[in-house]
Amino acid sequence: MRERYGLTAQVRRSALSAGSNIAEGVVKHSPKEFARFLDITLGSLSEVSYQLMAARDVKVAKPEDYDDLEPLRDKASRLTWRLREATLRRQ
């Protein structure tokens, strides 16, 4: 993906934020707090999805790039959602 509109940097920030929020949430003292950080993670992954779509639509990224990356983002979201649900059941 070429840099234009700041999208490349924004995708990187959002993806890094997702992992960072999981790492921060793991050390919290309750499942409810951890679930809150997983909610934030899901928001960051949603941002990644939009940014990838936008990059494709303004032709900053090739359609193949989107086709390769979006399934990975979707899988990360599904795994995070399942972790969140399991965490909330532990309360």
- Helical region count? 3
Return the string of H and E elements: HHH
> Low-confidence runs (pLDDT<50, min 5 residues)?
none
Number of strands: 0
Mean pLDDT over all positions = 93
- Computed over alpha carbons, the radius of gyration is 15 Å
Major sheet, described briefly?
A: none
- Which structural class matches the secondary elements? mainly alpha
- Span between termini: 42 Å
| Beta content | under 5%
Helix content: over 70%
Instruction: Based on Cα principal axes, name the global outline.
Output: elongated
Short overview:
It contains three helices and no strands.
Q: Which characteristics define this entry?
A:
3 helices; mainly alpha; 91 residues
Element layout with pairings:
Elements: H1 7-26, H2 31-57, H3 63-89
Helix pairs in contact: 1-2, 2-3
How would you describe this structure to a colleague?
By secondary structure, the protein is mainly α. Helices cover 81% and strands 0% of the residues. It has three helices and no strands. It has helices at 7-26, 31-57, 63-89. The termini are far apart.
